[in-house]
Amino acid sequence: MSKKAIVIGGGTAGMETASQLARLGIEVDLIEKQSRLGGHLNSWDRLFPNRRDSKEVLEYLEQGLSDGISLHLNAEIEDIHKNEDGFSVAFRDGKALHSDALVIATGYEVFDARKKEEYGYGIYDNVITSVELEEFFRNNKQKNLFEGIKSRRVGIVHCVGSRDEKSGNLYCSKLCCVTGVKQAIEIKELMPDAEIFCLYMDLRMFDRHFEEMYYEAQEKWGIQFIRGRLSEAAENTDHTILIKLEDTLTGLPLKMRVDLLILLVGFVPSPETRRLAKMLGLKEGDDRFLCPADEHTITNSTMIPGVFLAGTVKGPAGIASTITDARATALQVANYLK
Amino acid sequence: MSDLYNKLFEDVRFREGLKACLNCGTCTAICPAAEFYDYQPRRILDILQTKDDSQIEELLKSNTIWYCGECMSCVTRCPRGNAPGLLIQALRSLSQELGYFTESEKGRQQLAIKRTIGKWILEYGYCLFPSEIMPDMHPEQGPIWEWEHKNIEAVMNRLGANYKGTGPGILRKIPDEALDEIYRIFEVTGGISRFEKIEEFSRKKAMEMGMSMEDETNQDYMKFIYTADSGDHTRKHEN
Amino acid sequence: MKSFGYKISEDRQIDFDANDREVTGFINAVEPSIRLCMGCGSCTATCSAGHFTDFNIRRVHTFMQRGEIHQLKKEIMKCMLCGKCQLVCPRGVNLRNLILSIHTALEKSGI
Amino acid sequence: MKIEGKQRIWMDYQKEIADDHFFYVRSCVRQNFFPGSEKTFLRILQSELQKDIYENPSHTTCSGIGYHTDIVPFETSMTMVARQFALMTEAGYENLATSCITSFGLYSEVLETWHHFPETEEKTREFLRRATGREFKKPNNVSHASDIIFKFRKEIAEKGKYRLVNKLTGQPLRIVEHIGCHYSKMFPSKGVGGAEYPYVLIGMIEEWGGEVIDYPERRHCCGFGFRQYLVRANRGFSVSCSKKKFESMEPYKPDMILTNCPGCPMFLDRWQYTISEMEGKTYGENGQGIPVLTYEELSGLVLGYNPWDLGLQVHQVPIEPLLDKIGIPCDPEMKFRGADGQDLGEPESPSYMKFYSEKS
User: Fold this and answer.
1) Which chain C residues are closer than 8 Å to A222 by Cβ?
2) Which end of chain B is more exposed for a tag (fewer CB within 10 A), N or C?
3) How far is A140 from chain C (nearest CA, A)?
4) How many domains does chain B have?
């Protein structure tokens, strides 16, 4: 009798784990609470560092979904039980599934920028998040953003909801920096006369080709970087935004009017990730992301036999490393089911 | 060995106010003192984090620690839960304990505050009392204050105060037993000793500067510290 | 006007919108490499003039980019144009030309 | 601007405000400069709202100004605060109502310190015992007087005779609200609406018919800065801060400024005069300045109290233009008179900021 696995979450990590498991001959149920697969990939327009279309990655992931995978969309989990012969998953609509192994791939959600009250998101008209900017790009509506604006000065704020005790998140979301630089270049491509300022504490260009993007942003596009964290934003009479920060390289407070303020929102574990963790008794770290059995060596299993983790349930990660991680998880599941 | 740092660490406000600074500048960005003085709250944390006594001593003797207005705007914004305003309070306390405050123009002003606010607390039971707020010392209070001050009893009476009266009410006379209690509180908790230190170190400084401050009628030093402004506090410089 | 014994001061903030950035524009055009600064401070660390004065070439660069022109005039006179900064700059910024261009720009605009 | 965004934040900061039985502690600054405000606060609570609010004649300053000028050690201030608690406990009260914002901040700071460093509470109890023989219970509720007016803003509106509406145009009055820094910047959860968009004054303005102005320097300190005003050599800092606020609010053409701290209204009032004398610059309409009111004064106006009972005559910026807009009558003859109607003369006229009688 062939073994079965349930993969919860149909985003990048879940799709890739499912497809690899199927290739290893394991029967997979892929559970997604929304009406389509892809998760956050559906929100991004072009991906850093090479700015390829995110749809291409999604197509790749979809191609991997073979016959061995039963897809369950709009499926909301009610309860999970571990018993002697595996896991029973009950759904809100009364259905139930059974499996020998469980993969948690319910990922993250972006930080709710409204919590950073002093930035005025959800209050001031011209304060938006990096995710919203992607949506504008994706729907080809970015021109609407700058209608009627003459000088087009844009501020891009790093570390919104990350490295911030007040937001409850001490960790670095690590991908916001490169997102900010990518978006700065994209705005500049669109409006060559725009003045763009990235407001940062340090630029964490950790991955391949990231630092080069930063270089390109400065050299080719004239993007300016001010080392200082945004302290507050306020609205002027003409609905432009007045921002205040310390220009820490001169040691002076600085104020500046911008037409548009973009907040680079970080990662937080998705509510579903936390709900399932609680249901299963999985360990959360200080950062509320889930803990694998060992942070260096046993990175895809948990302390509960048969329960595995894939992707951003374990913390902020980009698409390439999420896919790599999903493959490692699939291998661990297969070994477990042998 | 870091004596001064250890002394600062005894102050709960210091322990509460200094976690770990990541030099983001959100404090300096909105600090009113940073807007008008050569001052950055961020630098204060930077220096304290070194635990280097020679730098701390320099700070305790400088104008720098006296620029802050203690509005605590920095506290709201710090992403690491530091409170630069509380650190300033700890530094100022230590600077007065050790007599370092007389080494700077802004620090020396403590005597003027002790001889007004400090005196009034013990005398009136409140930090201020209208008959003491002299229009010639406070021209910015405007003609309205001049008028009010001239007619203080009648105006306070008109506005429903119990001016210097017994029983409850606005600007009442605080009963002597209550004033005795607050004096004893000041004695027991180190308030009087703080006042005495401010006097003592200031007297030394006045002598050193060749000025008199023996009593309240002979106040060259008082006048000097109340008005002295080198004009060197506002320039843009240094990181 | 009455005197009260104290002055109303202008604030020290860098008021970006109030600053005249014509000089900034000119220098960025004649010496594009200055865009590449990443604020590392290698230049200041090695600066000959900086060892003996409070000259900080990294800060001069930042002031220039912010349009804080009045900060520059006095500062740039301290540079000896030895060029050590340029040798150590990890981004290959032509700092000598930064100083020279500031001279030219200030002369041009009569500051 | 999307008001829903602010409303969402306000929902997150719903602090508890006691309903009745208050132990009142007065403010050093308010007694000196706005005695009519404290009088009015008690009048509203006692006569309009039938609340029990008690004042012990032996209570004193919390020493807040001394504390924030650093001449008073923290241990001393904690014990001063403890003595107020002791008087409250002895009188059988559990809800503290403070007139001063810095007091409110200091009470909060002391309670938080005792919470995080319990040994400091023990030490304070010992100090108080040694100095006075008194014991105390910590209050159940600490509210600033503006919290209490906020809580009863609807009742005040119901009893009110006036709305904050321009009688001639029918438009709401445009009002700047200024919150004292020590109200919630240290402890956002202790303030109605939090630290970034405090709701305590906005709630009153909205309820009484006015319109709130949000302007870029809204969160900026008035510039008191304790030692920064108290020593003449530093006063330039203080006035410069206020000027920054005036310049920022000016384009929005405010009809008035509403405040909850005792110090801010005095500074925002007097610095307008000072700036006019130093630079010839006046804010507001017709060179008459922007009137600055305390929340007690404004509630008193809404309730139809005589402006001269509220103490509006001791403002340097004339408030008559505001009274005219709302349609509140006042007797100019009685403005500068004593309790029995005796003539107290008139203050001199400033050089630039026009007195009401001088309107062009």
Assistant:
1) 28, 35
2) N
3) 30
4) 3
pLDDT tens for each residue of A215-270:
999 999 999 999 999 999 999 999 999 999 999 999 999 999 999 999 999 999 99
Q: Residue D280: its chain C contacts at CB < 8 A?
A: 1
Phi, psi of D86 (to 5 degrees): -65, -45
CATH superfamily membership of A113-267:
FAD/NAD(P)-binding domain (3.50.50.60)
Q: Is D231 exposed, middle or buried (0-12, 13-18, 19+ CB in 10 A)?
A: buried
Assess whether the previous peptide bond of B41 is cis (omega < 30° from 0). Answer: no
Task: Mark residue B78 as left, alpha or beta (left: phi above 0; alpha: psi -120 to 50; beta: remaining).
Answer: beta
Taking Cα atoms as reference points, which of D136, D121, D241 lies closest to residue D181?
D241
For residue C57, the distance in angstroms to the closest alpha carbon of chain A comes to 11
Domain match, D81 and D36 both: yes
User: Could you give the C-alpha distances from A48 to A185, A207, A280, in angstroms and in order?
Assistant: 11, 10, 35
pLDDT at B236: 57
On whether residue D2 sits in a domain, the answer given is no
Per-residue pLDDT, B70: 98
pLDDT means over runs of 10, chain B (239 residues): 89 96 97 96 96 97 98 97 98 98 98 97 98 96 97 97 98 98 98 97 94 73 93 66
Domain count, chain C: 1
Structure tokens, A151: 């000088």
Task: Give the residue numbers spanning the domain of D38.
Answer: 17-145
Q: What residues of chain D lie within 8 A of the CB of C2, using their CB?
A: 277-278, 351
B 87-116 residues with CB < 8 A to D: 89, 92-93, 96, 105-106, 109-110, 112-114, 116
**SS3 for A235?**
strand
d(CA A329, CA A293): 12
Looking at residue B237, its pLDDT comes to 47
Alpha-carbon span A203 to A184, nearest angstrom: 14
Tell me the three state secondary structure of residue A72.
Answer: strand
Q: Are B32 and B120 part of one and the same domain?
A: no
Q: Is the pLDDT of residue C89 over 60?
A: yes
Look at residue C76 and tell me if it is in a domain: yes
Q: Is D327 on the interface with A (CB under 8 A)?
A: no
Tell me which residue has tokens 């006048």: B223
Chain D residues near residue B83 by CB distance under 8 angstroms: 186
Strand partners, D172: D165
Yes or no, beta carbons of C14 and A227 under 8 Å apart: no
Which range marks the domain in which residue B114 is found? 109-126+190-229
Q: Tell me the DSSP string of A112-128.
A: -GGGSGGGTTTTSTTEE
pLDDT tier, C21 (very low <50, low <70, confident <90, very high otherwise) = confident
Distance CA B153, CA C88 (A): 74
Q: Which of A252, A254, A257, A258 to mutate to test the interface with C (most CBs of C within 10 A)?
A: A252
How many Å lie between the alpha carbon of C102 and the closest alpha carbon of chain B? 19
* Architecture of the domain defined by A4-107+270-337: 3-Layer(bba) Sandwich (3.50)
Are D270 and D322 in the same domain? yes
The predicted model scores a pTM of 0.96
CB contact under 8 A, A250 and C36: no
3-state helix, strand, coil in chain C (%, to 5): 55, 0, 45
Confidence (pLDDT) at D358:
56
* pLDDT at residue D360, as a whole number: 42
ipTM greater than cut 0.85: yes
Q: Residue holding tokens 């030895």?
A: C82
C31 lies in a domain? no
Contact residues on chain D for B167, CB-CB shorter than 8 A: 57
Query: What does the alpha-carbon distance between residue B72 and residue D191 come to, in Å, rounded to a whole number?
Result: 15
**Greatest CA separation found in chain D?**
64
Q: How many Å apart are CA D280 and CA A114, to the nearest integer?
A: 43
